[in-house]
Amino acid sequence: MNHTIPVVPLRGLVILPGELLHFDAGREKSVSALQAAIQLQDGMIFLSSQHDARKNEVGVEDIFGVGTLCKIRQVLCLPGDSVRVLVEGVSRARLKELLSAEPYFIARVEELADSEYDENTAEALRRRLKKTFKEYAQYSMKYTADIIETIEAKAGHGEYADAIANSVMNKTEDRQRILEELNPVERLKAVLKHVSGEIEIQKIDRRISQEVKKQVDKNQRDFYLREQMKAIRKELSDNDESEADAYRARMEKKEFPAPVRTRLEKEIDRLAEMPGGSHEAPSMRNYIECMLDLPWTERTEDDLNIENARRILNENHFGMEKVKDRIIEHIAVSRLTGELNGQIICFAGPPGVGKTSICESIAAALGRKFVRMSLGGIRDEAELRGHRRTYIGAMPGRVIAAMRQAGTVNPVILFDEIDKLASDYHGDPASAMLEVLDSAQNFAFRDHFLELPYDLSKVMFITTANSKENIPRPLLDRMEVIDVPSYLETEKLEIAKRHLIPKQMRKHGIKKSMLTVPENVVSEMIRGYTAEAGVRELERTAASICRKAACEIGSGKEHVRMSKQKLYEYLGQPKYTQNLAERADAVGMANGLAWTSVGGTTLEVEAQVLKGSGQVQITGKLGEVMQESARAALTFIRAHADTLGIEQDFLSHNDIHVHVPEGAVPKDGPSAGVTMMTAMTSALTGIPVKAGVGMTGEITLRGRVLPIGGLREKLLAAVRAGMHTVIVPLENRKDMEEVPAEVKEKLRIVYASEAFTVLKTALSHMPAHTPRKHLNVTEVKSEGAHAMQ
Fold this sequence. Notes:
Largest sheet: 8 strands, mixed
Oligomer: single chain
């Protein structure tokens, strides 16, 4: 039988036939549907549950197709335009077609009757269910005799199953499954299975309750007996070993400073007298075990053999001469003084240059234990200093935990990524590190958990950082900073041949006889597929080649010899092919050099002159300092407009737009001043900038070129980008000692102390109006492959 009636979606409710149910309706469509059902449909309405009870706005696809045809018995208006409804389930029904969605759902529904079934099977299931339900009623204690009698009075088998399901089932999915089942026999089976499961749950619940009660009684009994045992032991002087006795035995086998031994004996005595169920016992055990595990006098003998140390460092790392020399110096001084005092060293450099890995080699060279501790993201002081024992779950800080792990008083401890320490309302962990890394204080480091001074003076602390600028000054002042520079291409070539490729071949199960990678292929890997200060990307590239080669070897090939063509087949076309030396000269575009925490990089600056009213626009997500440099450069150009052959009032009828590409990347710093000055001069004069020329330097209003930092990294970036000439401030000439000779050979270095030197070198020609005093710049110096003519 079909009905055309209003529809109300229900959230988290399923009504079964024969059930009386109250529910509140607050959605406008639901209230309208209920009112229409009372007025037009003689109180009949179709109710179906939503698939997702959290959705507020629903369509017909969001509700179950099978619901319940219900009779509205009572409607009560509530404050806030909502109503409370009492309905009675009449029969199952299926939603056939949605006729209207506004102002409420109206649908054609088909009333569903029970399917045919075997009467004998149904009767047997009903008797079994009746017995099981009575057993369930005894466990649940919420069913009276009247309720049970009312349920058993249901004549039909399907009605009987629905009545028990109404009483027992609470989950929406279980009730919906019963509602959609039209066969009374299957319905009886499903309800029987559910009730049987509920009985098992009730049994487990009762058993747990009894066990808890027994445990409480047992704890009281144990406490009483323990107190009795204490009295008996006191009378009999019983010496049987207890937990406290085991701790005392461990303590006797180890040497402790006198204050530590006194404190430890006191804590063990307290534990022995404490009831076993005391909430303080676990914390006290942790404290005692921590004190017993910590090294107080244990130490390893230092290996002061200089040649052995140099051999270990050279075997594991190529280059890094500054780091190796510092460790050799440390060992040499120790041989003369007879003791190896704790040192605090910071390796600062871009990612992937081997800062972390060489620390392990240093520990091996000294014959010491090595512990690495990552500080990245630590924002709570208690992570380093520990928690006070008043807190539940208190534990020592990471410094003490590292000493516990090392097992000696003189390990090498690495604090990795010290520049990534954070701070918030929990405290400032960088301030907590001051005591650890100060040799005048760390002989009596106090951890909140230990509550005793601990000597860290014999530890060799090494820290690593990508950027010294992110380390607080007081912390930086306590460390000896050693800069670990970017690798040259020749260094990367040796590292790949000696370490990276053999390591990846071992990792992928490839023997030396199976794969050959010639030197020219390794060079192409470096130039075409990596652009980094370190070698991590190069190692990933080597791993990719090994995987491809493993596939060929696994297919039956005995030996793979790499060539450039095969490299392109494995890795695709080179990612990095830009060569600025081959690019055409351009007006309004200059090449700058920048330093970042991951090494040096090139920085293009574009300038464009437009007809306008004198507006100056600076874009590219530039910081305040960089924007001020652009304004200073523009002021210099305006002050020397006649000299440069530019109209004196050029800004009155022109707009200037300066842009630095890669606009999503923040940029700041004064060293792009000369680059922006050159780009704007080129745009205003129409004279192209030489493509293969790079530059760096701060500019002043009077055109002076001031020194910058990170020169070595910037020159390496210039070489990677294919530049042939680089302009640097004259005052940076002293820094050229740190630049490798092979970089100087590939670049023509021009030193500039004022802006006209930069323009004379960077522009294809100087403006015709420029006086000769600016063309004959005496302080321009050159180094490298090409002398300046």
